[in-house]
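Recall that a protein's primary structure is simply its ordered list of amino acids. Everything else, from secondary elements to tertiary packing, is in principle encoded there. The following example makes that idea concrete.
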Amino acid sequence: MALSRSARLGSLATAAASFLVIAASSAPTPGADGIGDPYFPQLGNGGFDARHYALDIAYNPDTDRLDGRAMLTARATRTLSSFDLDLQKLEVTQVDVNGRRARFTRDGDELRITPRDALRKGRTFTVTVTYGGIPEPLGGPIVFGSNYGWMKTGDGVFVACEPNAASTWFPSSDHPSDKATYDIRIKAPKGLTGVSNGRLVSTYDRGGSTYTHWRETRPMATYLATATIGKFDVKTGRTPGGIPIYVAIDPKLVNSNSVDVYAVTAAATDYWSQVFGPYPFEETGAIVDDMPEAGFSLEVQSKPAYSAVRNETTIVHELAHQWFGDSVSVERWKDIWLNEGFATYAQWLWAEHQGTRSAHDSFRAAYDARPADSAFWQIKVADPQRDTMFASAVYQRGAMTLQALRERIGDAAFFRLLPAWTRLHRYGNANTADFVRLAEKVSGRKLGDLFQEWLFTTGKPAL
């Protein structure tokens, strides 16, 4: 069909307008300095998706100095004129983007990088940061009043970074919603062992140094990365179910342990694989270090890190996190009960498995121990706020929620739900609404009242 001159001009004007809209939408703009998490607004970064970290670090315990070179491979999610990484306090000496020197500035914990050319939406790029200094741990009320992050020990360093301390030792998009794979190479004085995530690729001595190379091929949140260094007695093998295992224990603690860390780790990994679905990583294990000042342990991906001697209950808790927290990670930090409530409930399941106490009795003990006027019941578990995100209510009331759910929908549906959850969100992120929807789908029941009462309402629920 032929068009009149006016119609042709109108079509050209429409096409020109469309072009201008497309051009404006693809014009280079700065990436955001955070993803907007309500608890940590500047954690993570906008405008790109982290894909892989290649970290090369050298640490000298005598001076406490860390020298590093971090290469991040990422995909631009918008056309970027500049972008940010999170890095706390360490000095940056050089930044390269796609192999070419880039300009950078510092603003608090933000490292803003301006490449020579805009990074087009959908394109993969690399940024390499050379940096160094003396890492400082973080402190305050967030993690039980303890220091956390990069913590110096008597012979090296204990690295446990939840929730916001990965950027104390490497530049990153430091939020669990931006997961990536890792290669971590550690140089330490000869005689010390560097232990990290995934599988050990190589280890060798050269001159006065020991080099170790670890590779984590499964997506990992930044706070779960570690580069713990020290003297360790290492035991490797396979669990009875065939999963590779690597356990490193500070020799000061070997004879004082009240629990066989290797045996319990192997048994719990195999049992959770039956209950929660296939083990999500290439290796299981543990890092047991002499760091009593830390006051906590952490579900480091593939190798939970224990500060000083820990018990069987702690081990089964941290291993349950490999499914709930590590493989399935929170979308925002307010969803932390999906990590801690589930791992605490796993402790109750372990006691039930061992025949020492049913999960129902654990639920009643936790419920009855706290009167209705206790501050425990005043924390809203589904949004506990930053300063109380690790409060006991998040752990215990979170676990009570799961037992209340189990008793509402029955064992058959409940034990279908757990592996369905870990399968559906494997290596990804999820939130509370996602869990509620899946629980209703698996059980075929409306459950809004139960979750409203246990997760979204303060006060002691009536039984």
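Residues 232-327 form a domain with the Neutral Protease; domain 2 fold (CATH 1.10.390.10). The longest helix spans residues 5-25.
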